[in-house]
């Protein structure tokens, strides 16, 4: 690789990490750069001096991540893409609630990235008693300076996870993120970033940027539905979702290893939707393991209805991949082929 630029770019998007007390409770604060520089002064000098150089940028409107939309994912990816050759790596500071969604989407948009994009946040604001914010920023900076990391990753509580495999798993514990079906990519040991051997993406998936910066807003407000089955679910409810012209795809969260009711109305609604070119994919409601739709007679109907297997993907990865594929001018069979093909280590 040619000489890397000297600095990292830190992009502050909002979230608890940078929140301050407002009239109605915690709200995203401004002047983050100044507050972070001040907080870094509290680190022991040796640690502070061993941090990589970085510049900080704030998005125009820092938000609570509960308000993030695919349009925000798109803006963030475009920002990284536009700055990509100017920095050796990126740290994105983000609210934890939808951090895994943003990280998943960034992975699909920034395919082939040849440097680190590390997303982090915090469970408590910078400067609050026992805040995890400064540690998480410090750790993320250290990982973002590792040229061996060439993908979108989530750094939280000293662990580095594949971004498109990560999930928020705890409502308040500092160690709030896991990647249920993928081992960590690295760990902070004695304030040093250690990347585990052979856990990074395989060569065709990294090292040669081929960004796919689609216009997600053009798909409309909510192009993909997330439908979680429950015992006794009425098929007309599923049909109502899928008959809506504004819905172009759906994630179905089924049972166990790929099981769903053998209900002709339900399966008929799914088959009708796939026949219309809607992109349907299934994962399990079990947090661990993969699915094999069709292993049970009852689940076989899903495959016959054209529902694709989401394998062991997270819901965040499936939803963001469906949106990403639907935003591209592709024939339906090519979208289906790409959905079942691992693009960025998501399955
Ligand atoms: N509500 C916050 C957010 O997601 C939670 C957090 O950042 O931890 O923006």
Automatic annotation (TrEMBL):
InterPro entries: Asp/glu_Ase-like_sf, Asparaginase/glutaminase-like, Asparaginase/glutaminase_AS2, Asparaginase_C, L-asparaginase_C, L-asparaginase_I, L-asparaginase_N, L-asparaginase_N_sf
SUPFAM superfamilies given in the database record: Glutaminase/Asparaginase
Signal peptide positions (record): none
Catalytic residues (UniProt): 96
Highest taxon in the source lineage: Bacteria
Ranges for domain Asparaginase/glutaminase C-terminal: 224-339
Domain L-asparaginase N-terminal residues, every copy: 8-193
PANTHER family, per the entry: 60 KDA LYSOPHOSPHOLIPASE (PTHR11707:SF28), L-ASPARAGINASE (PTHR11707)
Protein name: Asparaginase
């Amino acid at each position: 690789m040619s000489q890397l630029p000297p600095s990292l770019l830190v992009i502050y998007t909002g979230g608890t990490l940078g929140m301050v007390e407002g009239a109605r409770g915690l709200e995203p604060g401004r002047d983050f750069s100044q507050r972070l520089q001040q907080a870094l002064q509290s680190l022991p000098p040796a640690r502070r001096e061993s941090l990589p150089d970085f510049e900080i940028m704030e998005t125009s409107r820092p938000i609570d991540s509960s308000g993030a939309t695919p349009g925000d994912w798109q803006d963030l990816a475009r920002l990284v893409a536009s700055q990509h050759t100017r920095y050796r790596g990126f740290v994105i500071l983000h609210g934890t609630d939808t951090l895994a969604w943003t990280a998943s989407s960034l992975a699909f948009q920034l395919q082939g990235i040849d440097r680190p994009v590390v997303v982090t946040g915090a469970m408590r604001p910078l400067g609050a008693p026992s805040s995890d914010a400064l540690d998480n920023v410090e750790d993320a900076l250290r990982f973002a300076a590792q040229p061996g990391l060439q993908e979108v990753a989530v750094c939280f509580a000293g662990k580095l996870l594949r971004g498109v495999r990560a999930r928020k798993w705890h409502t308040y514990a500092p160690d709030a993120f896991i990647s249920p079906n993928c081992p960590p990519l690295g760990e902070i040991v004695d304030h040093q970033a250690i990347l585990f051997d052979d856990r990074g993406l395989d060569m065709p998936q990294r090292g040669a940027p081929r960004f796919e910066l689609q216009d997600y807003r053009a798909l409309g407000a909510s192009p993909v539905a997330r439908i979680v089955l429950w015992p006794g679910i009425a098929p007309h409810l599923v049909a109502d979702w899928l008959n809506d012209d504004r819905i172009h795809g759906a994630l179905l969260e089924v049972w166990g290893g790929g099981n769903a009711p053998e209900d002709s109305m339900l399966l008929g609604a799914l088959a009708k939707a796939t026949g219309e070119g809607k992109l349907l994919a299934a994962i399990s409601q079990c947090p661990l393991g993969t699915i094999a739709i069709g292993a049970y007679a009852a689940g076989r109907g899903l495959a016959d209805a054209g529902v694709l297997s989401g394998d062991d993907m997270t819901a965040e990865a499936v939803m963001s991949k469906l949106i990403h594929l639907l935003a591209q001018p592709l024939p339906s069979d090519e979208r289906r082929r790409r959905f079942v093909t691992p693009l960025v280590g998501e399955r």
